[in-house]
Amino acid sequence: MGLETKPLSTLHEMSSFRVEDFPVPTGREEEWRFTPLARLKGLHNGTAGGSGAVVVDVDAAPEVTVETVTRDDARLGKAYVPGDRVSAQAYTSFEKATVLTVPRMTVASRPTVVTIRGTSVDGAAYGHILVTLEPMAEALLVFDHRGSAVYADNVEFAVGDGATLKVVSLQDWDDDAVHVSHHHALLGKDATFRSFVVTLGGDLVRLSPSVSYAAPGGDADLTGLYFVDAGQHVEHRLLVDHTVPNCRSNVTYKGALQGDEAHAVWIGDVIIRAEAEGTDTYELNRNLILTDGARADSVPNLEILTGEVAGAGHASASGRLDDEQIFYLQARGIPFDEARRLVIHGFFAQLLEKIELPEIRDRVLTAVETELAR
User: Fold this and answer.
1) pLDDT at position 2, please?
2) What are the DSSP calls for 71-96, one per residue?
């Protein structure tokens, strides 16, 4: 049997909270063909034990309500229904969920920081977070993943009418961590969602950000930066599903890779359905391959089911350092290592400017410097 070649609109139709509704992945499915299943530690087939430990700590702005609830809380699962087996396994396996709520017409006075810290890779852990912004609210959230874990989770963002949510998700796991996560944003009328994903650590990280629209006027901007070292597998699988008129989306992800068997996967799926007239969308992925032995797979997919769009496009490229840029800098007396560092900084500079928090921006820059020094 070959790989599935279904249209995007049918490939992403399956959703369920029941694990048994999804077949166990074999690696031949389109959505799993790049993922080394043996390194998932059983998260995909039910063999992962549930004895892992992950601690969630919330440092919330005073305007943000924080609750810990069980799975029977009626608010959970309203913005997102799992779309694959690991996501469904995470939903049926978590014990407690964290719910963050920003009240109507409230502007959070400072960022809310959610620290997810793993303490062991002996057994799997599962989590769930729901973030709700009521109409006209505004907030900035930081998710900081650290430590060692085998961890699968779902994060729901319910962004109300006219609300603005900005999220920074930092995957800075230890080298032995395995993390499979789904982030889904449901946008109300004229809602704004800004996501910045930084993936640096972990043995295997597979992150699936997705966006859907409940009413016209939604505006989503998804940005990502990743640095992949020898032996690491980093996978970002994005889906933007335009189902209502006059909404916007923009996706920009950039990554650098170095070392033997460093592997980055970027899948960008955008669907413009027949009823989504006036959609304006663009997606871009760039990969900078710094050494032999590194591999980047980049697959932008755009399915347009209406002729009435404001704009739609995609682009993808993977390549090595520009020899002319390096030569230009060396000709002006800059040593090779410094010239290489400056070119890589320039590659990431436009993205880093989007991180509004100086401490996070400095942390990412320091991490990139550390990677380059290896």
Assistant:
1) 44
2) TT-TTTTSS----SHHHHHHHHH-S-
